[in-house]
Description:
With 254 residues, this protein is α+β, with helices and mostly antiparallel strands. It is built from 6 helices and 12 strands.
Amino acid sequence: MPQDDARSPDLRVDAAADGPMSEAAVGGATARPAQRPREINRTGDNLDDYTVEPVLGLPETPPEGERILWQGAPDWRVLALGAFGVRWVAIYTAVICVWRAAAVGAEAGLTAGVLSAIPLAALGAVAMLLLAGVAYFQASTTVYTLTNRRVVMRIGAALTVTLNLPHRWIGSADLKKGPWGSGDLAFGLMGSTRLSYLVCWPHVRPWRLRKTEPALRAIPEVEKVAALFAEAAQTRIEEQALERGGPAAAMAAE
Length: 254
């Protein structure tokens, strides 16, 4: 994945989970322009560029030995309230409506005050519906995948991006709980590679602009997913330590 380059946002990352690294790599795989698989449109002979993945959420079939432990997507309601600010729009609309009703009602009576606030309430409702619709669309086009070797994030509504994050590239994972048992799981990446905050938004840790942290946003049962990730990452570290240095290195990794 290149650094924050607005000229080439539509990138995906090679699905090879543990392949050789390069300086322009994200998660050990070189970023390249997306080449979406195609299938024949059942209603005619036209080809659709956005149709089929060999495995849901993955750009290629996982290599031998890799297992999918969990797949999910954001809860659009939580995404709307948090990332898209519907909660703050609702609070702002309520405050403005109360102020308008009070100001007009003090001079013209309660009924006139309430009627004067109705247009403001309608505008606020339209804004919240639009934001909720965008959140629903974002959630419906997102697939998060956790395997025993990596985290894969297929994100983006208009511009599809697939981030491939092998466990060895993740230096930290931060859990933030939200409503209804949901929450965010953000990953701090090791090394100097930078991701574009704007390209990855809203699937990032909020306001980490200097070094973007990709995040699984608004996922249900976030504590369960965090536990799966922690176990898979630790197991992968121990396996790689055994491959490189034998039992002594595995004990040191623990």
